[in-house]
Amino acid sequence: MMKKLLLEKILRIGLIATTIGLYPSMSHERALIPESTIYEITYVQEKDPSRVTEQELVKKITTENLNTGKYSPNQAVELLKKSVAKEGGLPEPVDIGAFYCFVKNESGWDPNARSKSGARGLGQIMRRTWKEHNPGTNYNKAYEPEANLETAVKIINSNEEYFKEKHPNWKNISKEEKLKIHAAAYNWGNSRVKRIDWDLNKEKRIPKETRNHVKRIMKDYFALSKEEI
Asked: Do 184 and 200 meet the contact criterion of CB atoms below 8 Å apart?
């Protein structure tokens, strides 16, 4: 009986060893793949197509004949870059491509644009908002492209600080969701977005203008950042 059990144990060990021999470890298998191929596989698996570089976004704006109104694409990009640099940058959710989309949908890149409610210039800045971010400065300067875009950057950065303080889960939501909230807040006001618990699916509580504004910006940004550069 003891000999029979010992024989069965030996046979099981032999079978396991044979099976392991037939299926080498992943590290061994990986070592057999050329190093360049390994890099390509890793790159495909880890690259997030929604995260493109500023250089890629700028290239898309300047080479695809995108709407930049009274400016050449290069002039528009320089205005964007200059205003962002002057104000110390933009928050991570709103890169230069998103900023381009904000301006396109606010004014169609017309520095002389004026809305029915009185908002002025490229970023469609309201008088009260202008005074808040530029105390003591004449509101007519809102028609000056650089001053207007610098104020737009101030608004976006101010909203980001508000979201960090008031939103219960700001750090953990996706970049896409953050960008939607930024777009809604820029058009409608950050406190109003908070009032609906940050839920942009509550369409009945959001003005049609704001809903359309967010949809247009996300559509434009998706086309700009997701398509092949």
From this structure: yes
Position 226 scores a pLDDT of: 76
Question: From CA 60, how far away is CA 111, in angstroms rounded?
Answer: 22
Question: Do 101 and 78 fall into the same domain?
Answer: yes
**DSSP tag of 88:** T
Whole-angstrom distance, CA of residue 177 vs CA of residue 181: 6
Reported as a single tens digit per residue, the pLDDT across 22-46 is 333 333 333 332 333 332 322 233 3
Query: What distance in Å separates the CA atoms of residue 151 and residue 147, rounded to the nearest whole number?
Result: 6
CATH number at residue 133: 1.10.530.10
> Are 40 and 86 contained in the same domain?
no
Rounded to the nearest angstrom, the gap between the alpha carbon of residue 96 and the centroid of all alpha carbons in its chain is 9
Residue 101 shares a structural domain with residue 150: yes
Task: For residues 181 and 170, give the distance between their C-alpha atoms in angstroms, rounded to a whole number.
Answer: 10
Non-local CB neighbours of 171 within 8 Å, separated by 6+ positions: none
Report yes or no: 180 and 188 within 8 Å, Cβ to Cβ: no
pLDDT mean for each 10 residues of the chain (229 residues): 47 43 34 32 37 88 91 96 97 96 97 96 98 97 98 98 98 96 98 97 96 96 74
CA–CA gap between residue 228 and residue 216 (Å, rounded): 20
What is the C-alpha separation between 204 and 34, in angstroms, rounded?
Answer: 57
Domain carrying residue 21: 2-46
Over 93-119, what HEC string results?
CCCHHHHHHHHHHHHCCCCCCECCCCC
| Secondary structure (3-state) at 189 | coil
